[in-house]
Amino acid sequence: MRLALVVVLATQASTLPPELLGYKQWAAATKEPHPIPMQLWTQCSLPTHEQESSAIQEHGPHAKRYVRVFGNGIASHELIAKGTPHFPVGSIIVKEKLLSSSERKPEAIAAMIKREAGFNKATGDWDFMFIRDGKVAVETSSCAKCHESRADQDYVFRSYLP
Known about the structure:
Oligomer: single chain
Mean pLDDT: 79
Shape: globular
Low-confidence stretches: 1-13
């Protein structure tokens, strides 16, 4: 089982791991940037109505940040399908974190890659990445811990679905 935090420093801020190159051409699970409260922006999942209301009460009109979600060709069907998903090996999901709904350059990128059986049983064999300022955190324990709560959905939050 691999739960260690490994940090790889990229040479340029625009550098992405090879698996993520071209993700903006993949199927978008969110047609437009989806708003989320600022205090919940660090989560991969979208907030509940109660969490959003609480953030707005606490932070007022500056409570919102935005995300866009993409899936590669292998993941795209399961990412937006109704019912219980089962993502095949090779599925990649990318979430852009945006400061505003009109922003085109993400502040950070979170990604999940479905690996071969046995990669990490505790996370359903998902590999997690978080990229900010050209620094890539691979397999973060905080991502894994949060996604364990969605084991019944193949460890994927899909609260952006209509």
